# Entry
Amino acid sequence: MDRKMNFASDYTKGAHPNIINRLNETNMLATVGYGADEICESARNRIRKACGVENAEVEFLVGGTQTNAVMIDALLQSYQGVIAAETGHIEVHEAGAIEASGHKVITLPQHLGKLLPEEVEKYLEDFFSDANYEHMVIPGAVYISQPTEYGTLYSEAELQSLRNICDKYDLALYVDGARLAYALAADENDVSLQALARLTDAFYIGGTKCGAMFGEAVVVPNSAKLKHLFTTIKQHGALLAKGRLLGIQFDELFKDDLYMKIGEPAVVAANKIRQALDEIGYRQYFTAPTNQIFIIMENSLLDKLAKEVEYGFWEKYDESHTVIRLATDWGNTKDEVDALIAVLKAVHN
Amino acid sequence: MDRKMNFASDYTKGAHPNIINRLNETNMLATVGYGADEICESARNRIRKACGVENAEVEFLVGGTQTNAVMIDALLQSYQGVIAAETGHIEVHEAGAIEASGHKVITLPQHLGKLLPEEVEKYLEDFFSDANYEHMVIPGAVYISQPTEYGTLYSEAELQSLRNICDKYDLALYVDGARLAYALAADENDVSLQALARLTDAFYIGGTKCGAMFGEAVVVPNSAKLKHLFTTIKQHGALLAKGRLLGIQFDELFKDDLYMKIGEPAVVAANKIRQALDEIGYRQYFTAPTNQIFIIMENSLLDKLAKEVEYGFWEKYDESHTVIRLATDWGNTKDEVDALIAVLKAVHN
Amino acid sequence: MDRKMNFASDYTKGAHPNIINRLNETNMLATVGYGADEICESARNRIRKACGVENAEVEFLVGGTQTNAVMIDALLQSYQGVIAAETGHIEVHEAGAIEASGHKVITLPQHLGKLLPEEVEKYLEDFFSDANYEHMVIPGAVYISQPTEYGTLYSEAELQSLRNICDKYDLALYVDGARLAYALAADENDVSLQALARLTDAFYIGGTKCGAMFGEAVVVPNSAKLKHLFTTIKQHGALLAKGRLLGIQFDELFKDDLYMKIGEPAVVAANKIRQALDEIGYRQYFTAPTNQIFIIMENSLLDKLAKEVEYGFWEKYDESHTVIRLATDWGNTKDEVDALIAVLKAVHN
Amino acid sequence: MDRKMNFASDYTKGAHPNIINRLNETNMLATVGYGADEICESARNRIRKACGVENAEVEFLVGGTQTNAVMIDALLQSYQGVIAAETGHIEVHEAGAIEASGHKVITLPQHLGKLLPEEVEKYLEDFFSDANYEHMVIPGAVYISQPTEYGTLYSEAELQSLRNICDKYDLALYVDGARLAYALAADENDVSLQALARLTDAFYIGGTKCGAMFGEAVVVPNSAKLKHLFTTIKQHGALLAKGRLLGIQFDELFKDDLYMKIGEPAVVAANKIRQALDEIGYRQYFTAPTNQIFIIMENSLLDKLAKEVEYGFWEKYDESHTVIRLATDWGNTKDEVDALIAVLKAVHN
# Structure
């Protein structure tokens, strides 16, 4: 089959070769289910070490929407809701998974996909000083994504601010790391895994978009905080019977610090594409430091581009322009990127 | 690592070689997500053909508890519950996943894991003739598993009876086929995929326990009945981003009728073990026609057996005996089975 | 006890004398429960007649939040959400009752508490033309209130537009009539009970704020649409055991068209107060045609006013001003209103 | 209207005269809503005093199913279920209200409506010693009713046993007191309000069936245990806007110990009827010490009885007999009871 080059998303391919090899090697091994096997235990220990928290609870789940639904349900009481940016994945593209477990998503304005700590604080201050606040959903957690849905990053200082605010108002802080490898590989990033472990109540390390075939690793730094998380996972239909499949993938991703480097090709590619876009004369909607690229395209050029490249529609810009998104990934080669740039040049002229 | 032989369950291994090979071949292919790719479409068509229903809706999910929760939620209105045997997987071992989406599991007595059609009918007759029935959960679906949690089988005549009863009282009939390949391979089985498609509102074809790495294929014969099933799947966190991983597995399982044969080694092995147990002098709790074997063991023998074989605890039988379960699977070899029988002999003497 | 005059809300008092009298008369009568008694049947028939729909289903519930939660749950499938103005009661002041039954509230901008039909249509058009809409909560109903939380009114033409849009996109239209009596008594209102019955899938006639001790009457014009609504009510804990208490109240409210007139004293009072505010020199935030009055008060005057009158805080206007709300009700007398106006004069000077 | 005498249930009438009088007196009083008024505060204090717990949280709700749903939701984490007798009201006659908030009802055998402490303990011991217990719903609370649905009573010693078991396994103990006044008035009862406050995590004092027009009073002895119960009540649609209506009723019920005596007429009546049944020659299904009477009637007599008396169907006994239930209430007079006995005599002959 002759295929167009595909920059539509970062989950179009299978898995990193190390993972495929290990899946092959272990295929006929018979192990106990549900993550109780020794490969899962090895993977957990590697992650604990990478996060610098010896006793962290680490659980493996299959996908991102699932992980968000499980963890937010686990972190909240039934009368609580979760604060998110209006562009947060849980608000927009999870088909109401949070509400389906009974919790409201409380939205605040987004700033290139980010919550502003001061706006979170203002909201909480106003909320709890409202004489009738007990008639409303009590905010119980803050949800952010790192990188955000716009590819932007929180700084460690911003995370620290959110942590302080959460402490002040007794909220949990939860980070969706679906694309975390691309944050870790970005030049401007100053938030390490250890910082996430220090500053959050729970976060997840994305596998699906970051070199795994599928899978996400949840980290709960203070494991005493969430009782019976295993049962919550099972109740959400999120417990993989052959848990070792996830163990294998994260064991490989955290062997020799692979996860710290796996996002680099994507970020290098994205930076190169962003520079080429400037040089060619494209307008970028904004520039993010990770693996997503947003271009304001003249509508007349869209079909021409679509003949050669799979890309993502982002939003209508104005009557004659559209914002499109290109996403690079861990598996992109120099040749692919050069080919894309050549097409972008040809389309522009 | 030197491992004990493992007959603890039928989900201890990876995937059938055809599947592993195809995953290897397609690994770096970039495809669209969420099951919209051509491999998924091919798999869907193979399944539709095997079921004899050209327009069936076929959806791929990751695991069994998840599939049950999604489908029962999709089949019920919010005021309805689902009838199940008191030993049904949804009642016992799914951590309340059905209740978590708001639905009661209404239990009826089990008979080696099966519901008796006449008992279902009696329940429904009594229910709807109760003057106060509207104060109670309205039964909206019947859940059965084929084979059951006890490895037993419904006959086509029994399924037809359940269908008639469901029609009479306007209930949906749903079949959990987590181990369906072992039913299809059993000598006494007379329920074909076509019969399931003709007699049920929805059923799933189990992959995880039947040769896939993971995954279950839901079949909704009359696709007009369930609107927006895709969104329900997404809402439950059950939509796999790289949907093609599931497509690949079911495309292989339904190529050249592999699924119809894949359970045979397990059933042959189980039959051989059951015969050997009789010959050696073990008492079987009951004999099922599929891949599960239930032995009433003297407690004094359990440790001896455990040194050589991983088995499953089923239930306490009396003060001095325990029921254990052995499960064979699609990947068992003659050598493994002979080795197990040798151990069973040695333990008994 | 010497009390301040109370204009804080329209549910500060008990019930209209006719209701109290009937409760007294019937107190020791023994009747069947759950609304199956003849008084409830009489009330249902009076309401059906007033709405011009002979076969409407009419159910009595206890309070507004409860009624909204029950009806929206009944109108939606599990994968659907409900559209509401960002100021809608279900979005803000119901503690997440809608989400607790699994449904997202999808908010659109408010215009003095109202949804604009064209904005609803634009939202639905964009939604269903989004290639990924099945990843999002499917809109299944539109929630509006008449009068709105701001005391404003939809015209019959606007309701007709919303009806048409709902038909086009297969949504239900639901109207929260917590204060419906004050709409029916307003000069500018052109939406009759018959129009509500013709244009909506369900609406409720508010009792609690409109002369009843408590209670709301749900009207489902096409009763075939909602099966087992009784069971849904019971499941929400919303079925009053002594249903006749509600029947008595609505039987009285719909005897001799009382409900059509019961809001008049409140509207007359509110109009008089609004005129007085203009004359005294107060700034009104906006003027609504029903029983709510919104004043932009200098903060320095608030304490002075609070000494004499219970009023409601609405929102901060700017650093030195606050919007307060006064609500009149069915029980206000000319003397009370004159006394309030005298205080408002005194405070202003 | 000429009415049959009505012994079908204990919620057929309005309210005790003291309550009706107070509702009349206070009708046009304007008070703040949602239970923040001074009458509610007075009622709360009377209840705290009667229970001997100065700082108990007391909340007023409208009905029993609602109260059970709210409190069980408040007491459980999302992964937990509630243990109940198979005849418990929450299991049978609440239309799935517990499951609708996501929680499984875990049923154990009933013994005339009661749980046996030793069976609860055995269940918990087995549960937590099951290696796979985390795949199942974790029991988080025990639900009992006092009196039970069969009119039977727990002794203080039995309650103490349940308390000890709950402490051992970290479960909450919750008591449904829908008919509590009839327990308090029964000769054999040794469980005081103070004992309930000492031994439970929460219980409710039934009003609807015990002399109130409607309403139940929840008592949480250790108020620190349940945070934001008010919001949970609101979220369930269970917060009465005119909260004072409930305050008035419980203020009257706990003035001069009325509630301690209000059940007496019912128990006296029931005892007299039970004695008469024996004398006449009726077979009683069993005899309970409170206000419910269960008779095994020949089917041929049912119509004859139905001409004179409203009674409740309980269950089919055998082909030719039916168990019926008669319930007495706080409002029964000696004349009514004598009239009933006369009819029972006439029917029997």
